[in-house]
C-alpha cells in the first residue's frame, strides 16, 4: 500500500495535490471559500437535521398543528380588539353603548388559546429535541472512537469537548427555532399582510412587506459581517480553554519546572485575545440593534400616518386604527426576536460546523467490505518486509520481517526509538503498513474485521493510562461486560497485585485518580497486566511491560507471564535482556529492521549486537 493511502478522508481520490497526512488535517469549517459556498454548506448542515425530525413524524405533526392553531388565534386577536373599540365608540352610535360581552369573552378566549396551544406545542416537541441530541451526541462519541490513533494524538481533548458541547447546543437551537420561530413568524407576516390588503388598501400591505424585507435585509447583511467577529471570539475561546486544560493536565510538569507564571502568562494572553474579539463582536451588535430600531420606527410611523389620515377622512373607524396598530406591534415583536434568532441561527450553524466536520473525518484504518472474523486459538504471526512511516519525513520501519509460530514466545529487543512499539501498533492495526504485510494464519490482517483482530490481541502497553475510577474497575476493564469479582482477584494475584491491594484501606475500591496518577508506574503496569490477563486473548503483546518494576517485582511477575505465555502466541518487547532469555526466539531491531535473530545462546555465540548489549547490561548490573 502506498504512503498516500494513509491519508484521511476520500478527498484524496479526486484531488491532484497530495492530501495532507491525517495528523495535520485541519478541522476548520470552510471560512474563506466565498459566501455562496458558505451558504450552501449551511443549508447542507440544516438539511442534516431532517432525518432526526423525520424519525418523529407524529410528534412533529402534532406540534405543527398546535403551532398553526396558536398563530391563527393570535392573528384574530387584533380583529376582535378593533370590533370591541368600534362597539364602544360613542361617535359611531347615537344610542347608549351596550357592553359587547360576547366580543370581550372571545378576546379573552383567543388570548388564552394562543398561549395554551404554544405550551402544548412545546411539550409535544420537547422529546424530539432531546431524542435527536441524544442520538447525535452518541453518534459523535462512537465516531471519535472509530477515528485513527493519529487523529487523537494530534487533537486537543479540551478543544474537542468544547467543539462538541457547542455543536450540540447549536443543534438544540436549530431544531427548536427553525420550527417554532422562523416558520411561525413568516406565517404570521403573510397572514397579516393579507388581512390588511383585503380589508383596507394595498398600501398597508406594502408598508408591512417593505419594512419586513428591509429589516431582514439589514439583519442578514450586518450579521453576515458580524459572524467573522463572533467566530474569531469562539476560536480564541477554544484556544484559551485548551491552554488551561493542557496546563492542568500537566500539573506535575508545571511544578517541576516552576512554570506557573509562564503558564499563567500564556493563559492571560489567550484570554486577552478572546476579550478583544468579544468587544469587537459587541460593538458590531450595537450597530445592528440601532439600525433595526430605525427600520421599525419608520414603519410604525408611516403606518400610523396612513391610518390617521383615513380616520380623518372617515374611511376608517377608530377600531380599524387600533387594529392596524395592534398588528404592527404584533408583527414587530416576533420580528424583533427574528433578528435575535437570525444571529443565533448563524452562530448555531457556525458552532455545528466544527462538530459536523468531525463527523466527516473518515478513519483511514477500516474494515474491508469482505472482511472475515479472526478466530484462532494459537495463531501464527508473520511480519514480512514491513515499511512504515508516521509522517512523510522519516521512515520508521524499513523492511522489518519477523515470524512468530503458533504458541511461540518471540522477543524484540533494541535501542529506544528503533521501532519496536511501532511493530505492536501495526499488529493492532492502529496504522496500516505502507508496504509489506502482516499476516496471521496465512491471511493479511487487513482481511480480518478490526473488531475480531483486536479482540484476539491483549496489549500491555509501554505507558499505561488508567480510567479515573477504582482499581477493581480498571482491572475488570479487560472484560468489561463479563468479569466477576473472582476473575478480578485471580488476575490481580497473577499480576502480583494482591499484596498491594490488601494493604489499601479501600482495597479494590481505591480510586486511582485522573489517568491513574495516584499510583506508581509499577503499580499501573501491574494493573495493565492484570487487565490483559482478564481479557485472555489468543495473542499477547507485552511492550516493555515490566520496565517500571524493580527486579524483585519483575521476577515475580515473569513467573506468571511465563505461565500465561505458555499457551499463547506472545510478542515481548523488552529493554532488559535478562527478562527474555527464555524466549523461543529473540529478534534484535535496529533502525526499523531486524538485524539478528535466534535463541539467547545462538545470539551470544554469533557475537553480534545482541552479544554486545548483553555484555553491557551484565556489566551495569554488576
Ligand atoms: N505517532 C507518531 N508520530 C510520529 N512519529 C512517531 C509516532 N510514534 C512514534 N514515532 C517515532 O517513531 C520512532 C519509533 O518509535 P517506537 O516504535 O515507539 O520506538 P521504540 O523502539 O522505542 O518502541 C521514534 O523515533 C518515535 O519518535
Ligand atoms: Mg517502545
Describe the structure.
A hairpin with a 2-residue loop joins strand 4 and strand 5 (443-444). The strands form two sheets. The protein has a six-stranded mixed β-sheet with strand order 6-7-8-3-9-10, sandwiched between helices. Strands 2-1-4-5 form a four-stranded antiparallel β-sheet, with helices on one face. The chain has three domains: 43-359, ABC transporter transmembrane region fold (Up-down Bundle), CATH 1.20.1560; 368-456 and 539-622, P-loop containing nucleotide triphosphate hydrolases (Rossmann fold), CATH 3.40.50; 460-536, P-loop containing nucleotide triphosphate hydrolases (Rossmann fold, 3-Layer(aba) Sandwich). By secondary structure, the protein is α/β, with parallel strands linked by helices. The chain is built from 19 helices and ten strands. Adenosine-5'-diphosphate is lined by residues 153, 390-391, 396, 416-422.
What is the secondary structure topology, with strand pairs?
Layout: H1 35-47, H2 50-54, H3 57-88, H4 101-146, H5 149-154, H6 157-199, H7 202-249, H8 251-256, H9 260-313, H10 318-360, E1 381-389, E2 395-404, E3 409-414, H11 420-427, E4 435-440, E5 443-444, H12 450-455, E6 457-460, H13 471-476, H14 485-494, H15 498-503, H16 521-535, E7 539-543, H17 551-565, E8 569-574, E9 585-590, E10 593-598, H18 600-606, H19 609-621
Parallel strand pairs: 3-8, 3-9, 6-7, 7-8
Antiparallel strand pairs: 1-2, 1-4, 4-5, 9-10
Amino acid at each position: 500500500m502506498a504512503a498516500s493511502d494513509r491519508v484521511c478522508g476520500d478527498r484524496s481520490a479526486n484531488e491532484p495535490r497530495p492530501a495532507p497526512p491525517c495528523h495535520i488535517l485541519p478541522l476548520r469549517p470552510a471560512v474563506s471559500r466565498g459566501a455562496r459556498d458558505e451558504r450552501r454548506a449551511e443549508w447542507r448542515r440544516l438539511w442534516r437535521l431532517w432525518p432526526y425530525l423525520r424519525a418523529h413524524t407524529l410528534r412533529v405533526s402534532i406540534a405543527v398543528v398546535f403551532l398553526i392553531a396558536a398563530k391563527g388565534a393570535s392573528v384574530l386577536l387584533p380583529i376582535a380588539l378593533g370590533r370591541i373599540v368600534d362597539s364602544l365608540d360613542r361617535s359611531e352610535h347615537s344610542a347608549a353603548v351596550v357592553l359587547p360581552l360576547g366580543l370581550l369573552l372571545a378576546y379573552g378566549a383567543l388570548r388564552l388559546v394562543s398561549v395554551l396551544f404554544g405550551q402544548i406545542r412545546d411539550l409535544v416537541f420537547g422529546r424530539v429535541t432531546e431524542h435527536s441530541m441524544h442520538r447525535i451526541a452518541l453518534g459523535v462519541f462512537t465516531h471519535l472512537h472509530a477515528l485513527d490513533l493519529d487523529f487523537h494524538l494530534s487533537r486537543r481533548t479540551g478543544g474537542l469537548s468544547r467543539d462538541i458541547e457547542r455543536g450540540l447546543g447549536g443543534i438544540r437551537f436549530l431544531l427548536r427555532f427553525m420550527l417554532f420561530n422562523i416558520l411561525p413568524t413568516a406565517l404570521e407576516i403573510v397572514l397579516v399582510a393579507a388581512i390588511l390588503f383585503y380589508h383596507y388598501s394595498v398600501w398597508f400591505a406594502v408598508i408591512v412587506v417593505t419594512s419586513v424585507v428591509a429589516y431582514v435585509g439589514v439583519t442578514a447583511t450586518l450579521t453576515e459581517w458580524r459572524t467573522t467577529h463572533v467566530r474569531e471570539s469562539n476560536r480564541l475561546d477554544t484556544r484559551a480553554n485548551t491552554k488551561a486544560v493542557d496546563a492542568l493536565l500537566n500539573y506535575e510538569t508545571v511544578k517541576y519546572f516552576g512554570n506557573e507564571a509562564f503558564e499563567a502568562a500564556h493563559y492571560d494572553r489567550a484570554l486577552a485575545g478572546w476579550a478583544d474579539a468579544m468587544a469587537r463582536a459587541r460593538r458590531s451588535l450595537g450597530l445592528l440593534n440601532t439600525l433595526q430600531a430605525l427600520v421599525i420606527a419608520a414603519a410604525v410611523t408611516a403606518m400610523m400616518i396612513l391610518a390617521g389620515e383615513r380616520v380623518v377622512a372617515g374611511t376608517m373607524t377608530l377600531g380599524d386604527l387600533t387594529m392596524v396598530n395592534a398588528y404592527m406591534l404584533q408583527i414587530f415583536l416576533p420580528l424583533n426576536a427574528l433578528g435575535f434568532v437570525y444571529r443565533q441561527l448563524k452562530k448555531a450553524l457556525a458552532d455545528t460546523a466544527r462538530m459536523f466536520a468531525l463527523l466527516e473525518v473518515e478513519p483511514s484504518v477500516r474494515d474491508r467490505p469482505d472482511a472475515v472474523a479472526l478466530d484462532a486459538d494459537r495463531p501464527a504471526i508473520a511480519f514480512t518486509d514491513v515499511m512504515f512511516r508516521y509522517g512523510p519525513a522519516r521512515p520508521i520501519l524499513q523492511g522489518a520481517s519477523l515470524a512468530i509460530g503458533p504458541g511461540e514466545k518471540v522477543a524484540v529487543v533494541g535501542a529506544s526509538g528503533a521501532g519496536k512499539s511501532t511493530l505492536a501498533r501495526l499488529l493492532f492495526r492502529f496504522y496500516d503498513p505502507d508496504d509489506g504485510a502482516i499476516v496471521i494464519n496465512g491471511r493479511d490482517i487487513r482481511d480480518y474485521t478490526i473488531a475480531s483482530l483486536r479482540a484476539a490481541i491483549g496489549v500491555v502497553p509501554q505507558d499505561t493510562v488508567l480510567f479515573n475510577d477504582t482499581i477493581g474497575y480498571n482491572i475488570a476493564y479487560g472484560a468489561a461486560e463479563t468479569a466477576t469479582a473472582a476473575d478480578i482477584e485471580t488476575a490481580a494475584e497473577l499480576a502480583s497485585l494482591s499484596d498491594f491491594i490488601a494493604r489499601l484501606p479501600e482495597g479494590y475500591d481505591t480510586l486511582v485518580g485522573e489517568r491513574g496518577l495516584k499510583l506508581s508506574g509499577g503499580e499501573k503496569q501491574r494493573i495493565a497486566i492484570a487487565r490483559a490477563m482478564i481479557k485472555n486473548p489468543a495473542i499477547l503483546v507485552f511492550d516493555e511491560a515490566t520496565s517500571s518494576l524493580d527486579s524483585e517485582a519483575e521476577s515475580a511477575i515473569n513467573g506468571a507471564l511465563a505461565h500465561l505465555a505458555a499457551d499463547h502466541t506472545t510478542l515481548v518487547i523488552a529493554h532488559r535482556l535478562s527478562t527474555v532469555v527464555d524466549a523461543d526466539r529473540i529478534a534484535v531491531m535496529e533502525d526499523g529492521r531486524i538485524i539478528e535473530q535466534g535463541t539467547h545462546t545462538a545470539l551470544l555465540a554469533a557475537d553480534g549486537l545482541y552479544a554486545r548489549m548483553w555484555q553491557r547490561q551484565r556489566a551495569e548490573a554488576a
